[in-house]
Amino acid sequence: MENIEKIRHSLAHIMASSVLELWPKTKLGMGPAIENGFYYDFHLPKPLQEQDLEEIEKKMKELILQKLKFEKENISKQRAKKLFAIQPYKLELIKDLPGQNVSIYKTGEFVDLCKGPHINNTKEININAFKLTKTAGAYWKGSEKNKMLTRIYGLAFETEKQLMDYLNMLQEAEKRDHRKLGEALDLFVFSELVGPGLPLYTFRGTTILNQLKNYINELQSVIGYQEVQTPNMNRAELFKISGHYEKFKDDMFSVKSHYTKEEYFLKPMNCPQHTQIFASRPRSYKDLPIRIADFCQLHRDEKTGELSGLTRLRGFRQDDGHSFCREDQIKNEFKSVLSVIEKAMKTFGMKYRIRFSLWDPKHPEKYLGDEKIWKKSQQLLEEILVENKIEYFKAVGEAAMYGPKMDLVSKDSLGREWQLSTIQLDFIMPERFGLKYADSDGKEKTPVMVHRAIVGSPERFLGILIEHYAGAFPVWLSPVQVAIIPISEKHSAYAEKIEKDLKDNNIRVETKNENETLGKKIREAEMQKIPYLLIVGDKEISADAVSVRERSKGDLGQMPIDKFINKIKEQIKLKI
Ligand SMILES: [Zn+2]
Ligand SMILES: [Zn+2]
Questions:
Q1: Following DSSP, what letter does each residue of 143-169 receive, concatenated?
Q2: What is the pTM of this model?
Q3: Residues annotated as catalytic (active site), given as ranges
């Protein structure tokens, strides 16, 4: 365990200790370290007020400055039951733990049931590098059947600067929150009548999604993928063969027909259906790889509490593709997808690293196929990573149910990491579906399946891009690329002519004809983060030109319309 994680977990203990000193009747839940900090769940004798967090924090600092030791002790369950006699949640945990003994940690007066590890002494904690941030309701052990406890969250780092940088990032992220910006920029809406996790994309949001789709098609057609369309639902039978019925059933929406008793499901992924396109005609070794891509709507039955903006949805698409290939083609398939992903991430200005996602040999029941096939496929992927000099880190237990993956973890402009692209190797599904091709020796063989996504879900990616660009999309993605602003009504005929010129060049344009002041119209267009504003009045008409204002750069002066059109078209072409 890294030292900072020990510090975070130790702070959770210190927080529990402080809460107990302030409100001795508090019942303690659990308190682990988490990413960037820690939390502890409490059953408090009173509702928490805003200022209580400050009070707790003050108490924590007092305790830390006492240079308290963290001391571990193994004791019998019997002794532990006496020790935690007035702590019902701890008693429950003691009962659940295996064996006859449990370990406890003492810090000053405070004792917690805990297996550690911890720091040795509170003097290792920098009192200026942690902060309590918020409270939330949390069910005991995460189950809705249990009591709701109060969870107090804290942030903790090694240095004060790290904490400050993180707090600044959070502040900036809040300003960029895609749920707020998505509404302000009129990109998507949610309706209670339609249902949670099922967004409706307005014309503007749809324009961006279409641009993303076109771009992905552009990229994937270069490496031989062809777009197909497949239905949103299918018979349960398909998922019984693929293995989803067995391993994924609880995450799928079931569909009822009035005319058959057969089970149907909304599909959560496209792979099983794509096998049926492959299987639809005889294939020879010369036909391979067969590469197909799909943007069909997918559905997953997520818990409502886990849904969030566009980043966790019940209905979404994926830029999903499958290559059915021979074993000797696997490396090349991975290489070509990697090259396209690299290009895409460059276009979006995102750095990335690759997570090599492996199976968890301790939990073979979560996966399809045996150990031999997993060893083989994992070794092959590792070879590809090494041969292509790709930097990667391993993650055990993150594989797909049918095979190991290379997942791209991309960094946005605020330094936050998102898992976007993925390439996965699968020896199992083609086998289960009995897919065959005729090899050069005339024998029937089973193809290999490579699953891949370039940006993952375009909808989720839209959410990430809104925050990455703070709503100011590059010209090629902007729903409205140019706003024309006539100074007064008498300039509207000229504005119309300019609008037509732009539309003839496939530029997305809006004319602000409202009866408002010039200042107000400019401000409004700027609020919508439109990349270019063209202002037209008497001067522009007599010069047969437009006055150009570029977002973030300001006034570019007068320009003949042709010159402006060439400039913006070049930017769109280069996707900058
Ligand atoms: Zn602990
Ligand atoms: Zn797939």
A1: -TTS-EEEEEEEEE-SSHHHHHHHHHH
A2: 0.83
A3: 271, 300, 318, 320, 322, 405, 451
